[in-house]
């Protein structure tokens, strides 16, 4: 018998219009003044204003804060906290992709905090005795099918010019999340591809993680991969295909539940410096290092990747036979999916050159929170070789 523990958000809706889901969740905590954290892209796509109008009709006072950028810098997070204090927010809603949802978590946490954000980075560093009154009620509405942030206790912030750090603490689990696939039908194809592959990486890394892998995270990761592998090509073909968008949103959320409990590893560790130094979108940076990291891991630990081949490409897996060949079939499948989505995963395609690789490898090695989960020990030399293969 192996012990494990599992946590997730206490309340979820899928398919209900976001405004209705939010209105009942907010009513449940008795809040009247709501701050909705979003970004200009989401607002510009026309997704925010109808929801705000509906919430106001139901008697709530709503402030929209949209000065959030991708890979939120610390200063933007702190500015949002000030805005929430000035408004007198009683509850916070994250409305958007991972960037607004992560920011919303920290706003809800920091509004009443005496502990500074700079002391909260890392795992379980939040000191509840220094948050008198606790965090504000927090609700999440994802508009990308990617990060799964709506169900994770993680908020990623860009600190200084070039490092991404995470606050990871159960206090960041939202009180509720409303998943409405209609909000994702307008996602541009490249965002669909990047965020969709990010979600698949969450499931792959959760399934193969060294620490805290468990039967629940395994089931969630497998179901997530099946939904995403089925939904992503269809959503790429026709963005308005609601059934494909639904598969993706559900898949991304299940992958989020999986990796919230069985954490991600070297793909994310090597992706973060690319995002921080070169402002490459999170999902694209994951895609850039995905196959080289998987090949590195599968060299010594092919078994679990072989199981994923059995799940996603059973025909090829049966022909391949042994674990190493089945693992290779799975990695080839991910490479082909990336190509089919029209994503160029080469680092040089975003202007990264050979000279940049040592700095990337150096920074990747600082992601110890993630690297400790990798099925194979990562070294500076191995990271450098992986970036070279990704160039
Ligand atoms: N908390 C977690 O568990 C977790 C996990 C993975 C990544 N992250 C973090 O999340 C961030 C990335 O999040 P993301 O990939 O969702 O991207 P994002 O939130 O940065 O959004 C990317 C772009 O898509 C636009 N967009 C979002 N929804 C849209 C819609 N429905 N229609 C049109 N445009 C839309 C946004 O305006 C933005 O320009 C990074 O900071 C990453 O580090 C967090
Ligand atoms: Fe991710």
Q: Which terms would index this structure?
A:
391 residues, alpha/beta, Rossmann fold, Dehydroquinate synthase-like, alpha domain, 9 strands, 11% strand, binds nicotinamide-adenine-dinucleotide, binds fe (ii) ion
The domain tally reads 2
- Cα(first) to Cα(last) distance is 44 Å
- Give the strand content: 5-15%
Estimated radius of gyration = 20 Å
Tell me the number of strands: 9
Bound ligands, each once: nicotinamide-adenine-dinucleotide, fe (ii) ion
What do you see in this structure?
It is a single chain. The protein has helices spanning 18-29, 40-44, 48-57, 74-87, 98-110, 189-208, 215-237, 242-261, 266-278, 282-300, 303-312, 314-320, 323-340, 357-364, 368-371, 380-390; strands at residues 12-14, 33-37, 61-65, 91-96, 122-123, 138-142, 154-159, 163-168, 176-179. Helix 6 (189-208) runs parallel beside helix 8 (242-261), helix 7 runs antiparallel to helix 8 (242-261) and helix 11 packs across helix 13 (323-340). The relative contact order is 0.11. The N and C termini lie far apart (44 Å). The protein has 16 helices and nine strands. The protein folds into two domains: 12-184, Rossmann fold (3-Layer(aba) Sandwich), CATH 3.40.50; 189-390, Dehydroquinate synthase-like, alpha domain (Up-down Bundle). It is 53% helix and 11% strand. The strands form two sheets. The chain has a six-stranded parallel β-sheet, sandwiched between helices. Strands 5-8-7 form a three-stranded mixed β-sheet. The model has no long low-confidence stretch (mean pLDDT 96). It is globular. With 391 residues, the protein is α/β, with parallel strands linked by helices. The structure holds nicotinamide-adenine-dinucleotide and fe (ii) ion. Residues 147, 198, 202, 268, 282, 286 line the site of fe (ii) ion.
């Amino acid at each position: 018998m192996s012990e494990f523990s599992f946590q997730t958000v206490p309340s979820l809706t899928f398919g209900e219009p976001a405004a209705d889901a939010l209105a009942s969740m907010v009513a449940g905590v008795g809040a009247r003044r709501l701050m909705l954290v979003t970004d200009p892209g989401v607002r510009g796509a026309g997704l925010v204003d109808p929801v705000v109008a509906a919430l106001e009709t139901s008697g709530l006072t709503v402030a929209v804060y949209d000065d959030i950028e991708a890979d939120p810098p610390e200063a933007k997070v702190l500015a949002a906290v000030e805005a929430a204090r000035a408004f007198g927010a009683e509850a916070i809603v994250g409305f958007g992709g991972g960037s607004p949802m992560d920011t919303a978590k920290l706003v809800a946490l920091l509004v009443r905090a005496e502990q500074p954000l700079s002391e909260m980075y890392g795992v379980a560093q939040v000191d509840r005795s220094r948050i008198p009154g606790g965090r504000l009620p927090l609700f999440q509405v994802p508009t990308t099918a990617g990060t799964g942030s709506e169900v994770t206790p993680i908020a990623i912030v860009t600190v200084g010019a070039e490092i991404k750090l995470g606050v990871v603490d159960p206090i960041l689990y939202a009180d509720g999340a409303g998943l409405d696939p209609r909000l994702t039908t307008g996602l541009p194809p490249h965002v669909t591809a990047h965020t969709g592959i990010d979600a698949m990486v969450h499931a792959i890394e959760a399934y193969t993680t060294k620490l805290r892998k468990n039967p629940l995270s395994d089931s969630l990761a497998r179901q997530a991969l099946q939904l995403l592998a089925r939904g992503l090509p269809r959503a790429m073909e026709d963005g308005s295909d609601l059934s494909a968008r639904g598969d993706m949103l559900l898949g991304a959320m299940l992958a989020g539940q999986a990796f919230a409990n069985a954490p991600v590893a070297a793909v994310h560790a090597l992706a973060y410096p690319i995002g921080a130094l070169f402002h490459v979108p999170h999902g694209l940076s994951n895609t850039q290092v995905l196959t080289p990291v998987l090949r590195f891991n599968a060299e010594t630990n092919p078994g679990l990747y072989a199981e994923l081949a059995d799940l996603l490409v059973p025909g090829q897996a049966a022909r391949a036979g042994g674990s190493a060949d089945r693992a290779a079939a799975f990695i080839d499948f991910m490479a082909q999916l990336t190509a089919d989505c029209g994503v160029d995963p080469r680092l040089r395609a975003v202007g990264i050159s050979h000279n940049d690789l040592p700095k990337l490898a150096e920074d990747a090695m600082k992601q110890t929170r993630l690297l400790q989960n990798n099925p194979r020990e990562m070294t500076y030399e191995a990271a450098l070789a992986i970036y070279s293969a990704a160039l």
